[in-house]
Structures are given as structure tokens and as C-alpha cells.
TrEMBL record:
Its cofactor is Zn(2+). Belongs to the metallo-dependent hydrolases superfamily. Adenosine and AMP deaminases family. It comes from the Eukaryota. GO terms for biological process: adenosine catabolic process; inosine biosynthetic process; nucleotide metabolic process. This is Metallo-dependent hydrolase.
Length: 202
């Protein structure tokens, strides 16, 4: 199966739902080489221009792989073409502040994880009001003491929970995890938990 035929198959399913319910964000893995990244962006733009429901591109994959020097031109091209940009950033303590700040300079529409932001990066995120997607199940596989939801809830930064299916969870289970603050040491108050669903709508 080619990358094009794969995307077309996914879009055939996505487009069974209304635009408000589903759109496709094309994933670009950090381990991809320049040719693969170029193909992903080219296909995303081409399919969108054909009227297919491609809404953006996403930097994902192994959080320490690749370099911003390689990714940057492809995400800039996607932005110029009018596609949304999602960046999974600061997923580990080993992700450098320099890398995080360079990725934030691409002015993403949405961030994945953003767990280990330093003060400068957090300020940029708060000031730009960019949406931060957080999956407690995913982050808690390796991180128990850090929970960015507290900071985002206090600052009223848009946040969403994501990636439910790969981790065999659902929204109810994710909210239940948030309420188990003492058990999981998340430090969330009941007010933080109550605030989270509204953060998605504002």
C-alpha cells in the first residue's frame, strides 16, 4: 500500500462524518528522512486541494529522533499552504529547551504533550493561547510527578485530552485518573478537574 492509497482509505472513513466531527491530520514521524517528509506534506496539500478533508500535519514519533533543521522547512511549507500544524514537543526531560523554542517559533496551532516546558516555553504557550493536548494515560506510563494540566488550567490555556484508543482508555477513564490525585500524585484539585472540560470549549 502506498502512502497515498493509505491516506485515501483513511479519508474515505473520515468523510463519512461531518466536518465538525472528523478531519485528518497527516502524521510526519521524526524518524522520516527528507524525501518521506516531503511526500507527506505534498500529499496533504494535494489532497486538501482536491477537496478531501485533510486539515493539518503533525510532528510525532520517537521524541528524541531527528532534528529541527530537517523538520522546519516542511512545517513552514504546510503553514504557508494553509494547513494546521500540530507539534509533539517537550515529551521528555531530554528534549532540549533550544529544540522546544525552535519548534514553538513555527507557531503551531496545537501541541501534543508539552510536558517538560521550561519557563520561557511555557510563557510562549500561555501567551499564544495554543491548544495543548494531554493524554494522562500516555504521560503516566513514564511520568507521575509532572502534570501540566495544573498550570494550563490555572492560566486558562486551551487543553484537550487525546490518543484515547491506542491506550485502551476513554474520556470517563481519563477524568477518573484526574480525580485520583492522591493515588497518582498529580496534584490536581477538584476545581482543576471541573475546569478541564470547559477549557476545550473556550
Amino acid at each position: 500500500m502506498t502512502r497515498l492509497s493509505y491516506l485515501e482509505a483513511v479519508l474515505d472513513e473520515v468523510e463519512k462524518y461531518s466536518p465538525e466531527q472528523a478531519g485528518l491530520v497527516v502524521s510526519m514521524d521524526r524518524r522520516m528522512d527528507a524525501a518521506a517528509l516531503d511526500e507527506c506534506v505534498s500529499l496533504a496539500i494535494s489532497l486538501r486541494d482536491q477537496g478531501r478533508r485533510v486539515v493539518g500535519v503533525d510532528l510525532c514519533g520517537s521524541p528524541l529522533a531527528g532534528s529541527v533543521d530537517l523538520f522546519e522547512p516542511f512545517f513552514k511549507r504546510a503553514t504557508v499552504a494553509g494547513l494546521g500544524v500540530t507539534l509533539h514537543i517537550a515529551e521528555t526531560e531530554e528534549n532540549t529547551a533550544e529544540e522546544t523554542l525552535r519548534l514553538l517559533s513555527l507557531r503551531p496551532d496545537r501541541l501534543g504533550h508539552a510536558t517538560f516546558l521550561n519557563d520561557d516555553a511555557r510563557r510562549i504557550v500561555m501567551d499564544s493561547n495554543v491548544c495543548v493536548e494531554i493524554c494522562l494515560s500516555s504521560n503516566l506510563l513514564s511520568v507521575f510527578d509532572v502534570n501540566p494540566l495544573i498550570k494550563y488550567a490555572d492560566q486558562k490555556t486551551p487543553a484537550r485530552k487525546q490518543k484515547l484508543l491506542p491506550f485502551r482508555t476513554n474520556m470517563t477513564a481519563e477524568y477518573a485518573k484526574m480525580l485520583k490525585a492522591q493515588t497518582l500524585r498529580l496534584g490536581l484539585s477538584e476545581n482543576h478537574v471541573r475546569r478541564t472540560p470547559h477549557m476545550r470549549l473556550e
